[in-house]
Write a structure and sequence with these properties.
The structure holds two protein chains of two kinds.
Chain A: E1 3-10, E2 14-16, E3 29-31, H1 38-49, E4 60-65, H2 76-82, E5 90-95, H3 100-114, E6 119-126, E7 143-150, E8 156-165, E9 171-172, E10 181-182, H4 185-208, E11 217-220, H5 225-235, H6 258-269, E12 275-281, E13 284-292, H7 304-310, E14 313-314, H8 318-324, H9 344-349, H10 351-354, E15 358-362, E16 368-369, E17 385-389, E18 395-403, E19 413-420, E20 425-430, E21 443-454, E22 457-466
Parallel strand pairs in A: 2-14, 4-5, 4-6, 11-12
Antiparallel strand pairs in A: 1-7, 1-8, 2-3, 6-7, 8-13, 9-10, 12-13, 15-16, 15-17, 18-19, 18-21, 19-20, 21-22
Helix pairs in contact in A: 1-2, 4-5
Chain B: E1 9-15, H1 26-41, E2 50-54, H2 65-71, E3 78-81, H3 87-100, E4 107-113, H4 141-155, H5 160-179, H6 192-197, E5 200-202, E6 205-206, E7 216-223, H7 225-231, E8 236-245, H8 249-252, H9 262-275, H10 280-283, E9 286-288, H11 294-303, H12 312-318, H13 334-338, H14 342-357, E10 371-380, E11 383-393
Parallel strand pairs in B: 2-3, 2-4, 9-10
Antiparallel strand pairs in B: 1-7, 1-8, 4-7, 5-6, 8-11, 10-11
Helix pairs in contact in B: 1-2, 3-14, 5-11
Classes of the chains: A alpha+beta, B alpha/beta.
């Protein structure tokens, strides 16, 4: 039996919605912070998916996104490193299509079926920037999903799948485009989404000899809420009882991650024996039949869609959002020398401590320290350390300052000292915080973020943030 | 181990006005400080046998030759010293050891900084300068010390308002002292309300909690005491020198309290031991300390043993560190008002102690000035360099 063995998701903390000045629409949607991108969100979803699991069992990692930060350089390798996976694994980016998430899922299923991998982690994330005041702006949201695919401990068997490829310009971007382009809506719908996705579903049902009545839930991509409703009708599912909520007024269309995020939301509520129809769209369509097993009850301690949607902060003003997305260039508070680009060789040398966030535990005195040292800071023993991953350790705020002149797109910059459970201290930046709620002793967790982009280098590192509740 | 006590004499000093010297180069500032020191010592520049030059930013990676060129010191050994905000004091310290060892009879020490040509406010450093991967958080100077401020308020149960008021009193005191000093960068008094209500730079520190960023130079001429006697009546004596470096303990140790700086404690211990100071609160007559921020000065009171742990607020409230108090601190306005040209600051502090011990400090002269202390702190919490120097009259 091949299927999904675990799932996780990530929805950013911030929302545009009622209460955001100059937002001009009643829709609520999730938006990534200024220091997030597809890579960082994929890491967050991956870490959620792997919570409690041995990360060494993962044999492959796929990253699906249309918003990869590098055109030439893999994103999956960064996600794999940050998620602290083994080095002898197969990593690949699935790019350029809103369907890349379901394509990656299908490739993972095939790899496991073929026996080339035991467990494949599929991540999908997107952060598409809609043009201000365009039809896309109220619709597009940011987020990520992750599932593992394997043969053992399956929580939802993937019984079958069916794919169609379809060459059409309905939505697209070229390398230099900041915003999504689209064809005339009637054309795009009739010859694209509303035509092709039903074809894939029909093909799958015929192949499996199933009817819509055989499914507890239908989970499928849609560009917007109206088309999602229309698709329910076209496919023959009862929108009230059978169709997964597409979360258009809470999350938004998260592109490549969208279908998988809806699937995670469906799995969070699924019961053993449920059959789920799952379909993704973009340059064609992929459809899957899933059957939920008893194992679904054992997936616990996931923040998932439910946890993330419940933990949010409405951004007070649209201007802040525009600044985060570089839609408006606001002068820094103070004249400072420009940032220096990081050194690739130093980044390479420090990848374990910076990207895997390894500390070092002294074998002589037991003190856990970050960053790793050659000589123990406590007992002065030389080179007697074992690496300890601290990215998943909880921490506590020891002291902090709000820097109103610091180099950040979201002042004040919160600089703090944090102490880790199990030992060790780190000087850290705090993100996803509500300034008024910061206080000494507050519980914190680590989150993978993009510090800055200088000289064409995206510099990733871990920040702390208040534990999301 | 022989200490430095009474083995080196300061016979001449010079110090420029500190401030924004748009019309003067670093060379100009060095010439002014040196010639004041020559005149004060009554020596011929030709008799200088060696020199130490301290600066951090001013000439990039240039060397002692900058001093040779400015002063036309022909073919003598000049060593450039850089040790962050301790640069000036460390240049002085190294020069003292050469004199005490009997290698040279007459030595010039120069500290200089020309910060205002950098074209930026604050110090001309890029953020996150430490690791090549540039992942370390940008922690400019105000933030480094603000972190201690937040923790200090928490540790000793001060409300934000109480904490801010205590810090404001230090700023008000230093502004008062600066107003009496014609060479200070800022010579204006401020009110408690002004200090407390100033814009926040890095919480809890506001504008008046931060020192000036200035241009300036200061110089000292030193010799051995037996030679000093023939040159100057009121030369002063070096009584103790302490310098220590942190190894990032404040950041690496999860039990480091961040309400004190161990580098100051240990540097002071060394200096007190050399000078034979047992009870600094009673024995030190004045101190010129590294008040880069008001919170730094508050911590220094405790780290130098002037106030008990957690007791600095009480001493601030009682006026203990004012010109009229039991132990005047930063009689010349401190970094806050005299200004802070990094490489020059250590020597500027020695200049103030020198003048006070000679009874030549003008309107800010304190009543009894037999033993004076200077203190510098350079770097970041956990990896500071701290220098403490103690001086005494020769009678």
């Amino acid at each position: 039996m091949v299927g999904i063995t675990s799932y996780g998701a990530y929805v950013p903390f911030f929302r545009l919605g009622e209460g955001t000045s100059a937002w001009n629409t009643r829709t609520e949607k999730a938006i990534a912070n200024f220091d997030e991108d597809s890579i960082t969100m994929a890491v967050a979803a991956a870490v959620d998916c792997l919570n409690g699991a041995d990360r060494k069992i993962i044999d492959g990692l796929y990253l699906a996104t249309t918003t990869a930060p590098y055109l030439e350089k893999q994103g999956a390798s960064i996600v794999a490193e940050a998620a602290d996976l083994r080095a002898d694994i197969f990593t690949a980016d699935f790019a350029n299509s809103l369907r890349a998430g379901t394509l990656a899922l299908r490739a993972a299923v095939d790899a496991v079926k073929a026996g080339s991998a035991g467990q494949v982690l599929v991540t999908a994330a997107d952060l598409r920037v809609p043009q201000p005041r365009s039809e896309f702006e109220p619709v597009l949201g940011d987020g990520a999903a992750a599932v593992t695919v394997g043969k053992e401990n399956v929580v939802a068997e993937i019984e079958d799948s069916y794919s169609i490829t379809n060459e059409i310009l309905d939505v697209w971007r070229t390398a230099g485009d900041t915003f999504v382009r689209s064809a005339e809506d009637r054309f795009a719908s009739e010859k694209g989404y509303l035509k092709i996705l039903p074809q894939a579903v029909k093909g799958l049902l015929e192949k499996c000899k199933l009817t819509p009545q055989d499914f507890a839930k239908a989970v499928f991509y849609a560009p917007d809420a109206r088309k999602h409703r229309e698709m329910s009708v076209r496919l023959g599912f009862d929108p009230k009882t059978q169709v997964q909520d597409p979360m258009f007024n809470k999350l938004g269309n998260t592109g490549t991650a969208f279908a998988l995020m809806m699937l995670v939301a469906a799995l969070e509520k699924a019961e053993p024996g449920d059959r789920i129809l799952f379909a993704g769209y973009g340059d064609g369509a992929d459809a899957f039949v899933l059957k939920v097993t008893e194992g679904i009850k054992k997936v616990e301690n996931r923040r998932g869609i439910k946890g993330c949607l419940g933990s949010k902060k409405i951004l007070p003003d649209y201007l802040t959002y525009a600044r985060w997305r570089s839609l408006i260039d606001i002068a820094p508070p103070v004249r400072r020398p420009p940032l220096d680009a990081p050194s690739p060789s130093a980044m390479y040398r420090e990848r374990n401590q910076n990207i895997r966030l390894y500390g070092a535990k002294c074998k002589n005195c037991g003190y856990q320290q970050y960053p790793p040292q050659r000589v123990c800071t406590k007992c002065h023993a030389k080179d007697q350390f074992e690496p300890v991953r601290i990215s998943d350790k909880k921490a506590e705020l020891f002291t902090y300052s709000l820097d109103y002149l610091g180099p950040t797109l979201d002042p004040p910059l919160v600089i703090c000292f944090i102490n880790f459970a199990g030992g060790g201290r780190m000087q850290s930046m705090m993100t996803d915080r509500v300034v008024e709620e910061i206080k000494i002793g507050m519980p914190l967790e680590m989150t993978f973020r993009k510090l800055h982009t200088v000289g064409g280098i995206h510099n990733y590192y871990w920040k702390c943030m208040p534990v999301r509740r | 181990m022989n200490g430095i006590k009474d083995r080196v004499a300061v016979i001449g000093m010079g110090c420029t006005n500190f401030g924004e010297h748009w019309d003067k180069s670093a060379e100009d500032l060095m010439v002014e400080a040196a010639y004041e020191a020559y005149e004060d010592a009554g020596i011929d520049p030709k008799d200088i046998q060696a020199a130490w030059l301290g600066f951090q930013y001013s000439f990039g990676t240039a060397r002692g030759t900058m001093l040779a060129h400015a002063l036309k010191l022909d073919y003598i050994p000049i060593t450039r010293v850089e040790n962050a905000c301790c640069t000036g004091t460390d240049a002085f310290r190294n020069a003292c050891y050469a004199v005490a060892a009997g290698i040279y009879d007459l030595v010039l020490v120069m500290g200089v900084e020309k910060l205002k040509d950098a074209g930026v406010s604050g110090l001309p450093v890029s953020y996150a300068p430490f690791w090549g991967s540039r992942v370390e958080p940008p922690v400019p100077a105000p933030v480094q010390f603000a972190l201690a401020g937040t923790r200090y308020f928490h540790q000793y149960g001060l409300s934000y308002e109480e904490g801010k008021r205590t810090l404001a009193k230090i700023a008000v005191k230093n502004h008062h002292n600066g107003s009496l000093n014609p060479r200070a960068h800022f010579q204006k008094e401020i009110t408690l309300e002004q200090a407390m209500n100033a814009p926040i730079i890095a919480s809890p520190l506001g504008l008046f909690d931060c020192c000036g960023v200035s241009d300036g130079a200061a110089a000292a001429i030193i010799t051995r005491p037996e030679l000093a006697k023939s040159l100057k009546k009121d030369y002063i004596l070096v009584k103790g020198l302490g310098l220590t470096c942190g190894a990032r303990q404040a950041i690496l140790h999860d039990d480091y309290d961040m309400v004190h700086f161990e580098e100051t404690v240990t540097a002071a211990q060394k200096a007190y031991q050399e000078a034979g100071v047992k009870n600094p609160r009673e024995e030190i007559d004045l101190a010129v300390v590294h008040d880069c921020f008001t919170i730094t000065e508050l911590l220094i009171y405790e780290d130098l043993g002037f106030s008990p742990r957690g007791g600095a607020k009480e001493d601030v409230d009682s006026g203990f560190f004012t010109l009229e108090g039991g132990l005047p601190v930063n009689t010349d306005g401190g970094l806050k008002c005299f200004g802070h040209p990094i490489g020059a600051s250590g020597l500027r502090m020695i200049y103030e102690v020198y003048k006070q011990l000679q009874n030549k400090a003008g309107r800010r002269q304190i009543k009894k000035a037999d033993i004076g202390l200077t203190h510098n702190l350079g770097g970041h919490p956990g990896h500071f360099t701290c220098a403490v120097a103690i001086f005494g009259r020769n009678d």
